[in-house]
Design a protein that fits this description.
6-stranded mixed sheet, 20 strands, disordered N terminus, 343 residues, alpha+beta, 7-stranded mixed β-barrel, 34% strand, 6 helices
C-alpha cells in the first residue's frame, strides 16, 4: 500500500518540493519541482535505500538517478521532522557529504572527550546523534584507563546509551553539581548561543547544563554559524504544556511574527510528546532581523504554559566543530570555567 508524503528540501541553493509515495517494497515514486530550474518541473523514479523514523524525525536515503550532470546517480539524503500523514521540512546532502559530516561528528566528540574528561568527574550526557560518538569514546577510556565517572542523562536516549556502554548511571537528586556537560546543538552562533531541541529534549538538557561547571558542545562544522537561523531553518523549539499550545502559538506569533508549528509525531496519531509529557512548538522566525535572544527567551518563558525554550544563552564554555577531514575547530573560553551552585 502506498504511503503519501511531501518533502520540502534545500540542497546547494536548490529548493526542492517533492511529493511522492512509499511502497512496502521500499520503492519511492516522486515528482519534483526544482524552483531554480526556470520553473520547469521534473518527474522521475528513485529508489529509497533507507526509510527510517524515530522520535518525530524522518530519514530517507534516495538515489536520484534523474539529477543531471556530475550528481547523476549519487545518493541524496533527506532528514528532518516528519509524520505519517506526510510532511517534513528537511536539509539534503549527498552521500559523500554525509560521510564527511559523520566523520566530523566523531572527530569533535573524540577531541572533547579526550581533552576534557578526567578521572572522578560527574558528567552530563546530552542527546542527539553526535553524543553517540562521545559516549562510545567515554566507554573506551573508562575501560582503558579505569576512569571513575558518573554519567547524568538528559533524555531517555542518553540513559539508554549510558546503560548500553556499562557506564555508571547517576541522577541529579544524588549529584546536583556536575563537572562537565557534553551535548550537541542544532546551531551555534558567533557568541556561542545555541538553538537546541531538535530531538525534543531541550528542557532536561538545559537543566543538566545549568548544573555543570562547563557546558561543552560537540557538532559537525555545518552547525557553526554567525547568527542563529543562518543555517538551521526549522525554528526554535519551545516545550509547552499540552493545554496551552494554541494560546502560546498565538501569543508568540502576535509578538514576534513568524510561524509557530506544532511538531507532529511519526508512526503515531498526533503530536510529538516529550519525555516530560509535553508538546513541542517550532517557532520559525525571521533570521534577517537583529534579535536580542536573551530578551526573546525571557519574554517567551513568561508566557503561561511555556515550559522551556531551545535558546541556550550565555551557557556554553566551548564548542568543538569537526570537519570532514577529521580536523576540529574549537571556539570558546580559555578562562576558568563558570561556577555552579547546583540546580
Amino acid at each position: 500500500m502506498w504511503r503519501r508524503f511531501l518533502v520540502r528540501s534545500v540542497y546547494r541553493g536548490q529548493n526542492l518540493a517533492c511529493t511522492g509515495q512509499i511502497q512496502p517494497s521500499n520503492t519511492l515514486r516522486i515528482s519534483t519541482d526544482i524552483n531554480n530550474n526556470h520553473g520547469r518541473g521534473k518527474g522521475y523514479h528513485v529508489t529509497a535505500k533507507e526509510v527510517k523514523g524515530h522520535g518525530g524525525h524522518f530519514f530517507i536515503c534516495l538515489s536520484l538517478a534523474a539529477l543531471s550532470g556530475s550528481e547523476s546517480g549519487k545518493d541524496f539524503f533527506h532528514s528532518g521532522p516528519g509524520n505519517d500523514s506526510g510532511s517534513m521540512d528537511v536539509q539534503g546532502t549527498l552521500a559523500s557529504d554525509r560521510v564527511g559530516i559523520e566523520a566530523g561528528k566523531r572527530a569533535a566528540a573524540w577531541a572533547a572527550v579526550d581533552g576534557l574528561v578526567e578521572d572522578e568527574q560527574i558528567l552530563g550526557i546530552g542527546s542527539g546523534s553526535t553524543i553517540v560518538y562521545a559516549v562510545e569514546r567515554i566507554a573506551q577510556r573508562v575501560k582503558l584507563e579505569n576512569l571513575k565517572l558518573v554519567c547524568i542523562p538528559t533524555s531517555f536516549q542518553a540513559k539508554h546509551l549510558i546503560l548500553q556502554h556499562n557506564l555508571v548511571l547517576g541522577e541529579l537528586e544524588s549529584y546536583p553539581e556536575l563537572d562537565l556537560a557534553i551535548d550537541g546543538a542544532d546551531e551555534v552562533d558567533a557568541d556561542l548561543n545555541l538553538i537546541k531541541g531538535g530531538g525534543g529534549c531541550l528542557t532536561q538538557e538545559k537543566i543538566v547544563a545549568s548544573c555543570a561547571k562547563r557546558l561543552v558542545i560537540i557538532a559537525d562544522h555545518t552547525k557553526d554559524s554567525v547568527t542563529l537561523g543562518e543555517k538551521f531553518k526549522r525554528g526554535i523549539p519551545i516545550e509547552v504544556i499540552p493545554l496551552a499550545y494554541v494560546p502560546v502559538m498565538n501569543k508568540i506569533e502576535r509578538k514576534y511574527r513568524g510561524t509557530c508549528v506544532l511538531r507532529m509525531g511519526l508512526r503515531k496519531a498526533g503530536p510529538v510528546v516529550t519525555d516530560n509529557g509535553n508538546f513541542i512548538i517550532d517557532w520559525q522566525f525571521d533570521s534577517t532581523l537583529d534579535w536580542n535572544w536573551k530578551e526573546v527567551h525571557t519574554q517567551i518563558k513568561l508566557i503561561p504554559g511555556v515550559v522551556e525554550t531551545g535558546l541556550f544563552i550565555d551557557m556554553t564554555f566551548q564548542a568543538y566543530f569537526g570537519c570532514a577531514d577529521k580536523g576540529v575547530r574549537i571556539r570558546g573560553h580559555v578562562a576558568p570555567p563558570r561556577e555552579t551552585n547546583g540546580c
